[in-house]
Every structure is written in C-alpha cells, then in structure tokens.
Write a structure and sequence with these properties.
8-stranded mixed sheet; 3 domains; 24% strand; 409 residues; single chain; Glucose Oxidase, domain 1; 3-stranded antiparallel sheet; alpha+beta
C-alpha cells in the first residue's frame, strides 16, 4: 500500500516538475520572441530614420545637379531661359532629367525619381523591407540672395511582413548654396562670352565704409593719403595727398590746387578747384598717412578699405534691385523674383579693365554696378582709380547716384 502511495506521489511530483519545465520553456520562448520583435521594431525605426536622411541627401544632390545642368545649358548655347521659367525648368530636371521634354546628358539617370526608386530597391534587397516613397508638392524657389530652396512633402511607408508598418509624412527642406556658381548674365551680356565670373558672397556686407568725420558741404570727391601739416609747401607728391590744415589762408590757391583734396578748419581762400571740406576738428580726428575717401559734395570722410577689397575680389551682395540668380539665368538686369518682403537680388561691380583686355569697348562714364552698366546708366566719378587704390578693377570707376548711399553712408 505504501509503495503504491509513493508511486502516486512521485508521479504527481514528476508531472508538476515537467509542467514547470515546459512552462519555463514557453516563458523563455515568449521572452525571446518579444526580444526579437523589439529588436526588429527598433531596427525598423532606425531604418526609417536612415531613409529620411537619405531622402534629404538625394534631394540635395538632385537640386545641385539640376542647377549645374541648367547653367551648362545656358552657357553652352548662349541662350537664357524664358521669362519666369527657371523654377519650372529646374524642377523638370530634378524629377525627369529633361528640359522641355528633351533628355539632358548632364543629368543622365541621376534624377530624384530614379534615386528614390533605387533607395526602395536597396531596402527590399538587403532587409526585405517593403518601402514606398512619394514626394508631393515639390517646389523650387529662392530662400534669399545666396540660397536656392527645395521644399517637398515626403510620404514614407515602410513595412515587413508579419512585423510592423511605419507610415509618416515629413517635410523635406534643402537649401543649396550658390557660392561658386557661374554668373550667366556677366558671361553672356557683359563679357560677350569671353570672361566668366563666379558668384562669391562679400565678406563685408553692410560694412563697406567707416564714417570718420563730417563737415560743411563743399565740392568734389578724392581718395588719398592724409597729411596733417602746418606747412603744405613741404609736402611731396601732393596730387596723391589730402592736406589737413587749420587755417588755409596762408597758402595761395595755386599751391592748394596741387593736392588731391583739402580739409580745413577755417578761412578758405578763393579759386580753389580741388575737392574740399570744412571741419575744425579734423586735425585731431584723422590719422596721419591713413587713406580716406573725401566727399565734399556729401560733407563726409570715410575709411573705405573694405570697399576696395570688395571690388578687388569681385564679390556679390544681396540687393532689392539687382537681378537674382534666377533672373540672371533668364538674362534680366532687374529683380523679377523680388518682392516687398523678399529681396533675393544680387549686385556686383563690372571690371572695365577686364573688358578692355577682351577687346570689348567700355562705357567710361557708365556706373560700374553690373546690372545698371548693361543699361549704360551714368555714374559719378567718386575719386577712385587704379593709381590711388592700386587695384586694376578701378579703371574708369563710377557709381550711380542711386547706389552711392548703399556703400558710403
């Protein structure tokens, strides 16, 4: 009897132990499955983030390639885009690699549509993910004078059979810096295809000149070296100097007129024809041997070292009047893409010396503002030339009345 009872108890214990073992195995299997699912879902999330980054990169590359292809078409054929067609043309190149339905060799198969399809195939082949990418409402515009903006809504669907699905919409915003892109307007309309110029943003925007002093308005413009003296007779190379004196009456006008300009404190003699300005504190404000621009007409004296560097380096600044990058691709010399609250134009200075070297006749009295030079807008001689600046870009240098205030405040 005891043996039977012992057998029953042993059997029951064995059943309990086996049940516990099986239950533990199920728990372990369940945990492993949960861990596997968690890892797969985490991988899916990481993959989604990678896909989103990939779309940004592919969009950036497609926009740059389309803009470069656009410029190559214009520069190679010497024909600008039609009015207000630049945005539409660039979008067509981005998506289809075509312009007006014609394949463009510079794009090849590197369109955004093909790149997104390749991305979908990559994740299908390597991770067995079903990926669908749709870009909607894509748009090209100018963000500012120096950036092209690509904006689109991306609809991303990614899934794996029996696992999970992620479906999201996200904004794709890419800004393409136009620095170092060719200026088609300068090449075709100004240098007649003989000389190129790349767009480079100026380092001294809004800081072209430093106002040193003001005085009673007199006349003329002069750029020269300051010489503070009590005896102008002893000054050498007078034609390159701006004399700064307290009382100008001890000197005959014939001697004063040998200078580039003069700033005086009082008692100015008659028959002086050089640029001059009255300021009785100039002898204490100006620095001897420094170079300044004197405008008797405006009654101001500036340090313009930044401006000279800006012209010498052929830099561009933002403008509300000069043609934008897109306008330049359409051959316009005004900003049709600008609005009251969105100034996206560009302006720079023509190098008349360069034009002469290409055998191109120059308008000596026209402003050097390049977009106005094409209209032969007259300019003011502000006293800057090759000899006093040491910069060849200042040959026949003129600035129109409307632009002087933007550079010399």
């Amino acid at each position: 009897m005891k043996g039977v009872l012992f057998s029953v108890i042993f059997t029951l214990l064995l059943i309990v132990i086996l049940s516990m073992v099986l239950l533990q195995r199920e728990n372990v299997s369940y945990e492993r499955h949960n861990i596997f699912l968690a890892q797969e879902i985490q991988d899916l999330k990481h993959t989604y983030n990678s896909i989103e980054r990939g779309i940004h990169i592919l969009s950036d590359v497609a926009v740059k390639r389309a803009v470069i292809s656009s410029l190559n078409i214009i520069l190679d054929e010497g024909i600008f885009f039609e009015d207000n067609k630049t945005e539409e043309n660039i979008l067509e190149l981005i998506w289809n690699g075509t312009l007006n339905g014609t394949n463009i060799s510079g794009m090849g198969n590197n369109t955004l549509e093909n790149s997104l399809a390749e991305l979908e195939r990559f994740y299908k082949d390597t991770k067995d993910y079903n990926l669908s990418i749709t870009l909607k409402q894509s748009k090209i515009s100018l963000d500012n004078s120096f950036y092209i903006l690509f904006n689109a809504t991306a609809e991303i669907n990614i899934s794996k059979k029996g696992l999970a699905t992620i479906s999201k919409e996200t904004q794709i915003i890419e800004k393409v810096w136009i620095d170092d892109f060719e200026d088609p307007l300068y090449l075709i309309n100004i240098t007649e295809g003989k000389g190129s110029r790349r767009i480079k943003k100026s380092e001294c925007i809004g800081d072209f000149s430093e106002l040193i002093l003001t005085g009673n308005n007199e006349s003329g413009w002069c750029y020269g070296e300051v010489v503070i003296t009590s005896n102008i007779t002893l000054v050498l190379n007078k034609d390159k100097k701006i004399a700064v004196v307290g009382d100008a009456t001890p000197y005959p006008h014939s001697e004063i007129n040998q200078f580039c300009g003069i700033i005086y404190g009082s008692n100015f003699p008659a028959n002086v024809t050089i640029p001059h300005l009255r300021n009785n504190t100039a002898v204490t404000i100006l620095v001897n041997n420094s170079k300044v621009l004197l405008s008797g007409e405006q009654g101001k004296v500036w340090n313009i070292s930044n401006f000279v560097e800006h012209v010498d380096k052929r830099r561009y600044i933002n403008s509300s009047l000069g043609p934008s990058f897109f306008d330049r691709m359409e051959g316009k010399n005004y900003c049709s893409y600008c609005s009251i609250n969105h100034s996206v134009g560009l302006e720079s200075f023509v190098d008349k010396n360069e034009l002469l070297s290409y055998g191109i006749g120059v308008e000596m009295d026209a402003t050097n503002l390049e977009y106005l030079y094409t209209n032969i807008t007259s300019g003011v001689d502000i006293g800057l030339d090759e000899s006093n600046t040491g910069v060849t870009e200042f040959k026949y240098f003129r600035v129109d009345d409307g632009s002087i205030g933007r550079y010399f405040e």
